[in-house]
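Budget justification aside, the reviewers requested a transparent look at the raw inputs and outputs of the sequence design task funded under Objective 1. We therefore reproduce one unedited record. The lines immediately below are the structure tokens for a 174-residue chain.
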């Protein structure tokens, strides 16, 4: 089972994502004012997905329901209790990629192919998840890292305490 906290962390890990309270009790996550995820309660999550992804999602989650605008499918809704955190991360990413401008989507997609030690001057020792997270956020140099707080780094999905420690040691700011 997952929660709003997991949804929030996954959604806000992508560049230019904003969280908005739409009305009392409803939170939406947007990229450039285009909604890609929302929750009306702490009980379910709504994801705006392309038509092909909607069909795949519905096949994977029998308790999910299709969301439509008139006759046009626009997404899905599924109870938090029916989706684990790892799968939620996957589907939030798919929803974000579908709604993000091409420049941002390409930037995030580029993070999928990076290797530790192969991006700018980021140290190999931070590992692949942290390298991917930083690259997806457009951060490819230690100079860019130096402008971020530990809390900002840790908020990125894939950057953990070890990666932050390695980055700070490399920067000489431990």
């Amino acid at each position: 089972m997952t929660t709003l906290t997991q949804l929030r962390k996954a959604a806000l890990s992508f560049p230019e994502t904003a969280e908005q309270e739409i009305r009392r009790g409803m939170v939406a996550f947007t990229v450039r004012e285009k909604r890609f995820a929302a929750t009306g309660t702490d009980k379910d999550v709504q994801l705006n997905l392309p038509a092909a992804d909607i069909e795949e999602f519905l096949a994977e989650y029998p308790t999910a329901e299709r969301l439509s605008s008139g006759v046009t499918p626009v997404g899905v809704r599924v109870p938090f209790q029916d989706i684990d955190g790892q799968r939620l991360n996957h589907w939030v990413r798919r929803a974000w990629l579908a709604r993000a401008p091409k420049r941002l989507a390409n930037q995030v997609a580029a993070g999928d192919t990076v290797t530790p030690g192969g991006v700018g001057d980021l140290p190999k020792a931070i590992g692949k998840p942290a390298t991917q997270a930083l690259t997806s956020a457009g951060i490819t140099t230690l100079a860019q890292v130096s402008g971020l707080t530990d809390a900002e780094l840790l908020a990125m999905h894939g950057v953990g305490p070890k990666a932050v420690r390695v980055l700070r040691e490399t920067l000489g700011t431990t």
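The radius of gyration is 17 Å. Residues 114-171 form a domain with the DNA polymerase; domain 1 fold (CATH 1.10.150). Computational costs for records of this kind are itemized in the attached budget.
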